[in-house]
What does this fold into?
Amino acid sequence: MPTYRPPRIAASEITPESVYLSRRDWLSGSAALAAAALLPPEAAAAALPTFYKSRYSTAEPKNSEAEITGYNNFYEFGTDKRDPAAHAHTLKPSPWKVEVGGEVAKPRTFDLDALLKLAPLEERIYRLRCVEGWSMVIPWVGFPLAALLKQVEPTARGRYVEFTTLMAPEQMPGQRDDVLAWPYVEGLRLDEAMHPLAILAVGLYGRPLPNQNGAPIRLVVPWKYGFKSIKSIVKIRLVEQQPISSWTRANPTEYGFYSNVNPEVDHPRWSQATERRIGEFFKRKTLMFNGYDEVAGLYKGMDLKRNF
Ligand SMILES: Nc1nc2c(c(=O)[nH]1)N[C@H]1C(S)=C(S)[C@@H](COP(=O)(O)O)O[C@H]1N2
Ligand SMILES: [Mo]
It folds into this structure.
């Protein structure tokens, strides 16, 4: 069976170290772009546009590319952590379209090029905390979800945002099993979706997203449990009512709409007080909002035990 092989070019490998180090504070993508010019056309096409380093990144050590691309939840390819790396080669991330509609003044279908032009790309090194009790630090490349939402102009009735993953059992064999109601659906309240920390990721470790991480475009909401960060998105709709996510539909007592990382609200079957960072032996304390305190204002006055 074919196994996934990530593209093999890192900016740091091609540019002399001194140049790379002096540039990297302002423009990490320029080195990658210069490198792409030296490659055959098909490899150049797979490179990301220039991206900037974001001030929202954590300074914590990153998980390795092997960890991030080899230990995944992507049930469309099976429920084992190694299934997505082994099977996601059948996903065709190009060409790709994302249909944005619902309660908006300017509904529009974006191809990937149009999405990449919505805002400057940034590298965002974020913690990801899975509801199962593990975490990673992942260098995404993406842009604020707000940039896309502003383009389509939500109406007054567009209070929530609903996201849908590709439905294509011939590409995603896990969709033949009814572990979840397919296609995978997630949702955010509009103010959560507009928060500058919520991004659409198109890359990882400076290159386009590997299929198993949600190619070609996925959501990343770092203060919520990982399952909110829906992969391989084909549809985004502004809606009036709170969307019902696939996980809430599967088990409403275990997976709520908000799903903010919260060490004080346990999952019915396990504690959420601690987590294991992949690659580490000892457990860490889980932080409220996964350490992203700047989102606390979104939930002022809400009972986060009831609104879990
Ligand atoms: N479409 C889809 N999106 C998904 C999932 C999935 O099974 N299908 N799994 C979620 C879960 S549980 C987690 S923890 C993250 C994992 O993202 P990663 O594999 O890129 O680390 O993706 C989320 N997005
Ligand atoms: Mo997860």
Residues 1-29 have pLDDT under 50 and may be disordered. The chain has ten helices and 13 strands. The chain has one domain: 11-261+290-299.
